[in-house]
Design goal:
The protein has helices spanning 2-12, 16-30, 38-45, 74-84, 90-98, 110-122, and strands at 61-68, 102-109, 126-129. With 130 residues, it is an alpha+beta fold. The chain has two domains: 2-49, no CATH class; 61-129, Ribosomal protein L7/L12, C-terminal domain/Adaptor protein ClpS (Ribosomal Protein L30, Chain: A, 2-Layer Sandwich), CATH 3.30.1390.10. It has a three-stranded antiparallel sheet with strand order 2-1-3, covered by helices on one side. Helix 4 packs across helix 5 (90-98). The radius of gyration is 24 Å and the shape is elongated. It starts with a helix and ends with a strand.
Length: 130
């Protein structure tokens, strides 16, 4: 292992240009490429979206997740949560905001989810669409 440690130390001392030159030399010597093929990257990402089809379909439903609400923006965020999530009482909205991160809306159409995100962000919340 001492040889590997020495190699790591030597490589750590290389400049960016020297490291790039080393990569080129190794690619030539070993007949390989350090670049990941684009098709392989796309194939690796395909199952993550949950669809096994052709992978070309755009996601149409989103979950609106309240990631956080800064303490100085808590009241406007609570009001926005009540606007976004119909029929929610003040105490329930406060629990959701204080319990962030939490999912406010599930399987919501894209336009509605983006509208909810915009309202919440205008109130000061940090929101994610998943």
């Amino acid at each position: 292992m001492a040889d590997l440690d020495k190699i790591v130390e030597d490589l750590s001392g290389l400049t960016v240009m020297e490291a790039a030159d080393l990569v080129k030399q190794l690619e030539e010597k070993w007949g390989v490429s350090a670049v990941t093929p684009v098709a392989a990257v796309a194939a690796e990402g395909a199952p993550a979206d949950g669809g096994g089809g052709d992978g070309g379909e755009a996601k149409t439903e989103f979950d609106v997740v309240l990631a956080a609400a800064p303490s100085d923006k808590k009241i406007p965020v609570i009001k926005a949560v009540r606007e976004v999530k119909a029929g929610l009482g003040l105490a329930d909205a406060k629990k959701l905001v204080e319990g962030a991160p939490t999912t406010l809306l599930e399987a919501t159409p894209k336009e509605e989810a983006e509208g909810a995100k915009k309202k919440l962000e205008e109130a000061g919340a940090i929101v994610e669409l998943k």
